[in-house]
Amino acid sequence: MGMRGCSGGLAALVILAETLLLSPPVRAGEVDILAWFDKAKAERGSGIARKTMPVSVRPAKPGEIVVTIIGGEKETESPPAEEGDMVVRNRCPETGNEEILVKRAKFAERYEGPLGDEEGWRVYRPRGIEMRFVMVAEEDGEMTFVAPWGEPMIARFGDAIVQDPANPKDTYRIAAAAFACTYEVLEDPVP
Predict the structure, then answer these.
(1) Residue 17 CB neighbours (<10 A)
(2) What does the domain layout of the chain look like in residue ranges?
(3) What CA–CA distance (Å, rounded) separates 41 from 38?
(4) How far apart are the C-alpha atoms of 83 and 24, rounded to whole Å?
(5) What's the predicted TM-score (pTM) here?
(6) For range 82-88, the mean pLDDT
(7) Which of 143, 58, 120 minimizes the C-alpha distance to 66?
């Protein structure tokens, strides 16, 4: 086998390795959310949005698991918290002021403050990281995928799938009501 055959095989291995590293594992009945996002972006276009609504924050207790409930329905469950992780509560009565666990490094990138105190929580402001987004269309139906933290998420018509342009693995669902309440659309999706 010559060098040409070797480099072709090596290139295929590199592509396979990149795919495995970028995509979360896909289980039976689940959608590969990164492939879905790329396809939806190509067909319908993606927009740019950023989180702007201030949040309430408290330190997470090591080992704490945060279950995110939106409108009375479980959205996802966090892995156990580690030292320095934070519980972030959206200030969005329409969704039930859902809580999420944010890892220490991600919190420092995404929020600034504190700006004040309120009943055991501190107020922080999002740094306004610009995220790509694609809206789940009616023809997509309900889909299940693996969130970046390893838990299944369900997305439905009207929800936003957001992606950090600097880290495509950071792709997840924002429920329609939470997106409308906490995000500002900077650019509408353009095909």
Answers:
(1) 10
(2) 26-49+129-186, 53-126
(3) 5
(4) 25
(5) 0.79
(6) 97
(7) 58
pLDDT band at 28 (very low <50, low <70, confident <90, very high): low
List of residues 6+ apart from 127 with CB closer than 8 A: 109, 110, 111, 112
| Distance, CA of 36 to CA of 45 (rounded, Å) | 12
Torsion of CA 136, 138, 144, 148, to 10 degrees: 0
Q: Encoding tokens for residue 167?
A: 């880290």
> Given this model, what pLDDT does residue 158 score?
96
What confidence category does residue 73 fall into, taking pLDDT thresholds of 50, 70 and 90? confident
Dihedral (C-alpha) 108, 109, 114, 115: value to the nearest 10 degrees?
180
Cis before 62 (ω within 30):
no
